[in-house]
Inverse folding.
């Protein structure tokens, strides 16, 4: 066994001077005549602090048959204990407290200093190779992709006011301090307005010309577009609905993902749902016995992203922000009727006070409806078990990912359109839920992973777009307005609205 360092590889041919031999160095002379000359080239790498030594290796033969020509000695980071990758999340619906989570090479308690001089000491946790899963076939997480995660620090900032900006920094005098960062608390549950972004299946991509183990090509444009929205002040919270980093057992890639999302996740509440690439593994208790998590079995995800759940490996929760009640489930844990999660789902969505939060949004990674067949086909057992609850308790909208495109349905139940949206005065599709029939479903798995094409369109499918982007939502007590934003063009490619009868 060995500890895997993030592998980033570039061809020296990325420097055109190398192929054209524009930079020659004379290495051997016979009298005054040059007998041996070499050509040199330069490539640049974007490297983040992963707390462990790194090396540069020059090799030939490609990835399949590499032949090492030369290598550097180990190089250390100047401060492997540096506090990094702080991200905030909501702890409850009151919006008077926020959890800050960050990573450091040191297990010694650190602090978050925020607001008008308040300070809190962090609690510290980590996970080990022994916490990872394996099987008869070696897994990346346990057997050949392990990397020490350092220590994950967490502190809950209390005494906050909803919809209010604060600044914070984290660290200690011994390991150093982060920059001062400004964040904004979300609106409290039951208040009048919420502006949010939602998406799934984002992952990461290199910030240089490297080839890597697993690249999600759309992630950089999506992160940049959403960062611009957050910096504009028009975002209260973010919901990432499963397939978070795609580290899939190569643990160091969580660090790179956390680095990429810092401009977003350090500024507004970043809420998540678990997906197959975080949880699923053979004989691990997941519903689907695939090796999709690479042996992580949800451990890394739940450590880096502590949500307001009841306990470990029960990653379902609900939270209210503004006029919206979000019910967030795990499609990777047992959802069958009479299971623990099923009973929780029914208790949660049946108890929503619709006079306080008129909108009920149900979110989970796997879809119930998709016009994309094949590997990401719908699990009919999941749909048959859970869909009746959504109709019974008048869920307004279902958000999911797993399929890597964007698709919006009619008000659908049992694969039949029970109602169609009408056009409002601006030509926007409007779902009138004053006479509720069924929820609409939106597949929003187009935030990074290579896009999927559509198969034969289904009768319940209204809009299908295979472009990178995210969903932008604006909820008031009267309606929810939603837009699919193309992250490359920044153009709105689909708009729809849910009302309770107002025009």
């Amino acid at each position: 066994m060995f500890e895997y360092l993030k592998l980033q590889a570039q061809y020296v041919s990325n420097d055109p001077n190398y192929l054209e031999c524009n930079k020659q160095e004379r290495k051997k002379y016979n009298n005054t005549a040059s007998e041996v000359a070499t050509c040199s080239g330069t490539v640049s790498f974007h490297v983040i602090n992963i707390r462990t030594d790194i090396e540069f290796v020059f090799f030939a033969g490609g990835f399949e048959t590499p032949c090492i020509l030369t290598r550097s000695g180990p190089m250390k980071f100047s401060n492997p204990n540096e506090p990094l990758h702080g991200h905030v999340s909501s702890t409850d619906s009151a919006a008077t407290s926020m959890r800050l989570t960050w990573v450091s090479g040191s297990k010694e308690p650190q602090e978050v200093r925020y607001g008008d001089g308040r300070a809190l000491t962090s609690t510290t946790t980590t996970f080990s190779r022994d916490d990872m899963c394996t099987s008869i076939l070696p897994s990346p997480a346990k057997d050949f992709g392990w990397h020490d995660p350092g220590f994950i620090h967490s502190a809950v900032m209390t005494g906050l006011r909803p919809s209010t900006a604060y600044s914070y920094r984290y660290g200690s005098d011994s390991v150093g301090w982060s920059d001062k960062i400004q964040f904004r608390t979300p609106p409290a549950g039951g208040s009048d307005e919420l502006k949010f972004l939602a998406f799934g299946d984002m992952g990461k991509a290199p910030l240089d010309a490297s080839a890597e183990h697993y690249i999600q090509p759309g992630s950089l444009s999506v992160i940049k577009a959403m960062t611009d929205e957050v910096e504009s002040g028009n975002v209260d919270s973010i919901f990432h609905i499963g397939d978070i980093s795609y580290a899939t057992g190569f643990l160091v890639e969580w660090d790179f993902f956390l680095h990429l999302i810092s401009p977003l996740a350090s500024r507004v509440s970043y809420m998540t749902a678990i997906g197959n690439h975080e949880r699923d593994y053979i004989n691990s208790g997941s519903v689907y016995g695939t090796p999709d998590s690479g042996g992580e079995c949800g451990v890394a995800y739940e450590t880096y992203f502590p949500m307001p759940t009841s306990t470990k490996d029960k990653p379902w929760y609900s939270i209210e922000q503004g006029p919206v009640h979000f019910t967030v489930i795990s499609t990777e844990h047992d959802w069958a009727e009479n299971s623990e999660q099923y009973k929780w789902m029914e208790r949660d969505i049946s108890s929503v006070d619709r006079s306080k939060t008129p909108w009920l949004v149900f979110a989970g990674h796997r879809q119930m409806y998709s016009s994309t067949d094949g590997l990401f086909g719908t699990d009919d057992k999941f749909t048959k078990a859970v869909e009746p609850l959504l109709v019974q308790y008048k869920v307004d909208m279902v958000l999911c990912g797993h399929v890597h495109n964007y698709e919006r349905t009619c008000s659908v139940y049992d694969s039949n359109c029970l109602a169609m949206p009408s056009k409002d005065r601006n030509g926007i599709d409007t779902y009138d839920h004053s006479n509720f029939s069924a929820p609409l479903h939106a597949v929003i798995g187009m935030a990074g992973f290579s896009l999927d094409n559509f198969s034969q369109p289904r009768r319940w499918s209204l809009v299908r777009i295979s472009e990178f982007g995210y969903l932008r939502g604006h909820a008031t007590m009267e309606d929810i307005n939603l837009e699919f934003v193309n992250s490359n063009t920044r153009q709105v490619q689909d708009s729809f609205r849910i009302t309770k009868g107002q025009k």
The longest helix spans residues 252-265. Residues 12-71 form one domain. The two ends are 64 Å apart (CA to CA). The chain has a mean pLDDT of 94.
